[in-house]
Write a structure and sequence with these properties.
With about 300 residues, the protein is of the alpha+beta class. The protein has one domain: Hypothetical protein, domain 2 (Endonuclease III, domain 1). The strands form two sheets. Strands 1-5-4-3-2 form a five-stranded antiparallel sheet. Strand 4 and strand 5 form a beta hairpin. This is DNA-3-methyladenine glycosylase 2 family protein.
């Protein structure tokens, strides 16, 4: 399949929220190709994306979920994103928008894979979360269909998650609270997938019906599953500091960030993404968070 985006496209920026570096066994750029292994309504599938110098995106897919993944390429790359009504109320945001015209909010059209990773990222360091994610995909996921890189794995689907015994959750490094949330979500997974069609605040409310999925987790899922332009990750360790540093020159908390971003509704997350893509970071003065090994507990 070949697809020519009818808009400027920054492929790395649009796909960035799906990646977690080398520990991201279901999504990674490899030798110039972006690879995605995912669970879909049709089954497990692999998608490969390559952008040619002329701007055309070449896409190929394999597995039972191939048709779903291929049909979803435009949405994945931001074709359904609509920034109508977005106004930059701060000069730094106006500059970021000018410098990154190819930034769009993409959507996978699926909740489950994003949900599991988001829950794993609750209240732990990024290194801890991606370590658990890699083990979960490697031990209980499946090899990606097709001629994919050897490392690529499809994350475990709800049935596979429900088959994991407590001892193996311990080996993966997931505490009782997070594993309970993932298990409860697996039991109602079809209902949670309906959040994509509901979208917006209603979709996020559907996700939050699962005990253990709060504002932060629902926003992280919504950003990826349906490219929610207003789903800010309130409760994040780094985002309020980044937003405050970028727009005010100093750190702020969630309450202050909510007030600061209020004029950007319903595009508050879009504003955050522009700041993130611009590479703006708050200075790091606080103590490092220690890594924990739940296997030893």
């Amino acid at each position: 399949m070949e697809w020519r985006p009818p808009f400027p496209l920054d492929l790395a920026a649009v796909l960035g929220p799906l990646s977690r570096g080398r520990g991201s066994l279901n999504f990674r750029a490899h030798r110039g190709v972006w690879w995605l292994a995912a669970n879909t309504p049709g089954g497990k599938g692999t998608l490969a994306l390559l952008r040619r110098p002329d701007g055309v995106v070449e896409a190929a897919s394999w597995g039972d979920g191939a048709d779903f993944l291929l049909a979803g390429v435009p949405a994945l790359l931001g074709a359904e994103d609509d920034d109508t009504g977005f106004v930059a109320h701060h000069e730094v945001l106006a500059q970021a928008r000018h410098e990154h015209p190819g930034l769009r909010l993409g959507s996978t059209g699926r909740v489950w894979d994003a949900l599991v990773l988001a829950v794993l990222e609750q209240k732990v360091t990024g290194k801890e979360a991606i370590r658990s994610w890699a083990r979960l995909c490697r031990w209980f996921g499946t090899p990606a269909p097709g001629p994919a890189p050897e490392f690529l794995r499809v994350p475990p689907d709800p049935a596979a998650v429900l088959s994991i015994v407590d001892w193996n959750w311990h080996r993966i490094g997931v505490d009782l609270k997070r594993r309970t949330t993932i298990i409860e979500a697996a039991r109602v997974a079809p209902r949670l997938e309906e959040a994509v069609q509901l979208a917006g605040a209603e979709g996020r409310a559907r996700l939050r019906k699962v005990r253990g999925i709060g504002v932060w987790t629902a926003a992280e899922i919504a950003q990826r599953a349906w490219g929610d332009p207003d789903a800010v990750s309130f409760g994040d360790y780094n985002i309020p500091s980044m937003v405050g540093h970028a727009l005010l020159g100093h750190r702020i908390d969630d309450e202050a960030m909510a007030a600061l971003l209020a004029p950007y509704a319903p595009h508050r997350q879009r504003a955050v993404r522009y700041l993130e893509t611009s590479g703006i970071r708050a200075p790091r003065y606080g103590p490092r968070i220690e890594l924990r090994d739940y296997r030893a507990m």
